Amino acid sequence: MPATQIEEQVSLKLLVNEKTNKVILAEAGKDFVDILFSFLTMPLGNIARLVQESDIGPVGVGCLSSLYASVTNLRKCLLTVTCEEMLLRPRNSSVEYCRSLKLNIDDTEPLKYFMCTNFPRCSHGLLSTFKNERCNCGNLLAHAVSVKRGEVYNGFVKDIATFIVMDDLVVIPNAMDTSFGVLQKCGVKRLSSVQEMTVNIQVLDLLKCALLSKSTLTDLFLVKEPLLNNKSSFDPPIVQNSSTIQIKVKVVMRKSDGKVLFAQGEEDFADFLFSFLTFPLGGVVRMLGGHSSIGSIDGLYNSIDGFNENKYLVAKEMKNRLVDPVLAPQFKLNLQMFPIHEQASPYYRYYQRSGNIDRSPLYIANGYRSNNKNNETYKVMKLVDLKSSGGSLKGYVKGPALFMATDDLVVEQMSPISGVSLLKRLKTPMNDVEEKIVTIGIKEGLSILKASLTSRSALTNGLGHLLLLPEVMEQKWYH
Fold it and tell me: What distance in Å separates the CA atoms of residue 355 and residue 151, rounded to the nearest whole number?
């Protein structure tokens, strides 16, 4: 269940245009704005899980739900149990800032630390945040140890700051002329048509509407449901980054309408798709240049750029944390195509007092330190490599293997039978099928990522510009 405290409530005051039945603006304080900003730090895998809950009912955000469900269905194909945990419950690199939210929907467990069961006799000094990883000595990293930190975080914006939130979640610091300027901009000429409303927030429903609607507050509080069928044409992202990493896949498409039925690739293709689940939402918007077309998220994201970080945010580095959120430590693939960074791992030391390992806490070096240093000894600890093979970080799935992804990103292990079964389900005759071999680079990768969050045709939309090229090699998929 979500970690929301039932006794806590966050209220919001709305100004509503009675004639149009639309929210003009909302007055909000720290509690509500912190909740909105926390959405940008959430990994997509956690969003996929959370949007299946709450009052509005389960909703689908593009292809995210089918991609998420594929992880469980492919459990036997994953390298380790840790890989499954990383994809189904990816970690938030800003989790410490979200813990203090008045309404916190993040239901992931607090970070735990595990040492070698043979410690202190083991000399390797390895530490894991996932249970039952293997130490270099051969024993399991399964001995739980406690962590004590000195710094306490308090959300994202300052306590006394107040804000105006627009219907599309654009957040504006409150000023003397802000409200009147917004009313004029919205075409309100008579204040008699403006009504005040006070509402309580259901955070999960707010998240769903934010992901699906361009008028989040109206749909949440007045219409009572997001515009689930609000379809728009797909605009490929403008790519300003480069990458040397490329993935070759075979695309099976329907000649009559150009729809991609499925794509076939090796382990790197499956890893590429599954890595989407680890990306923080704000990081996705940044990679798409602030134009993700995901509900009202662009308005929320782009409004942060105009904030005076010294005046409104709890720390100067907070703006960068929100507009360029990074992956949690150890979550970046070794061969990562996308321009996204990973949070540096903290520098760990194990402090031992009285010689009893069961009562000795683990301290982070730049955090809490005991004043009784004369009775302490310490050992520098290092996080064990995850998904390791020969010392280098690998992916999530086992190989050698072939994987198939449908247009809506249902991923499964490829076989001739699975391909035929899919064609039968889609009622596509063999003479209407062709295959093309294409290469996914950064442009195609970002297009697939964007399409996966805004449509049910991630491959058709994401690879459409390639499939129109006559020089792309054709080859029968069933050979």
Answer: 27
DSSP annotation string for 96-136: HHHTT-SS----SPPP-EEEETTTTT--S-EEESSTTEEPT
Alpha helix (H) residue ranges in 134-234: 178-185, 203-212, 216-218
- H or E element, residue 272: helix 267-274
Q: Global pTM?
A: 0.89
Q: Are strands 171-173 and 163-166 parallel, antiparallel or unpaired?
A: antiparallel
What SS3 state is found at 256?
Answer: coil
Q: Where are the domains of the chain?
A: 11-108+153-232+293-323, 113-149+342-392
Closest by CA position to 392, among listed 335, 449, 438, 348:
335
Greatest Cα pair distance, the chain, in angstroms, is 80
Burial of 124 (C-beta count, 10 Å sphere; 0-12/13-18/19+): middle
Is residue 177 classed as helix, strand or coil in its secondary structure?
coil
Length of the chain: 479
What's the mean pLDDT in 4-23? 81
Q: Average pLDDT for residues 92-100, to the nearest whole number? A: 88
**Helix (H/G/I), strand (E/B), else coil: 409:** coil
Measure the CA–CA gap between 142 and 279, rounded to whole angstroms.
27
Phi/psi for 171 (5° steps) reads -105, 125
Q: Is 190 helix (H, G, I), strand (E, B) or coil?
A: coil
Kindly state the tokens that stand for 334.
């070794």
* pLDDT tens digit sequence for 470-479: 444 344 444 3
Q: What is the rounded distance in angstroms from the CA atom of residue 182 to the CA atom of residue 198?
A: 19
C-alpha separations of 317 from 100, 271, 323, 325 in Å: 18, 31, 10, 11
Closest by CA position to 67, among listed 89, 45, 91: 45
Who contacts 406 (Cβ-Cβ below 8 Å, separation ≥6)? 66, 261, 262, 422, 459
Count the alpha carbons within 13 Å of 407 in the hemisphere toward its beta carbon.
18
Strands 362-364 and 147-148: parallel
